[in-house]
Amino acid sequence: MKKTMYVLLVLLFAAGCGSPENKEKTAPQTMSTQSSKAVAQGVTFDAAVNNLNQGKVQEAIILLEQLIKADPQDIRPYPLLANIYIRAGKLKDAQALLDLGTKVHPQNADLYFLLTQVQDQLGDKDAAIKSVKKSVELYRANKDEENFQKALVIYRVLSESESMK
What we know:
Blueprint: H1 2-14, H2 20-26, H3 36-40, H4 45-53, H5 57-70, H6 77-87, H7 91-104, H8 109-121, H9 125-141, H10 145-163
């Protein structure tokens, strides 16, 4: 059952939880600008993505961490770095990053949805249910029907599995 829920979470997230429409609705206006401090240091989001595309994962991680430190309001590094951590099996790092991300960006449904996945994998069902419930509320408020429906399915699956205990 646990493996089935994990696969369901991964498939639903990979199927488009990060749609461009949702990014426009949930991302702060500072998203399109780079932190002047980070740019002055030669650290840009594009450089991190380029490193990742070239297989330089560790370099990408360093740049993404620097970007978050230099400009916590820039939403872009959070989900990318969280996904890198998840793929590397660093679930506690992903959770800490997403906890920070949801504090800085409390209206970003995608961060809550991603946090749900991490919390579920770590076995914290109560926290996962709270996070996915928040993502459902935010997707609904943002009128993001596609991701609302995906999050709602996950909410129901997690809630049912918790009530079966």
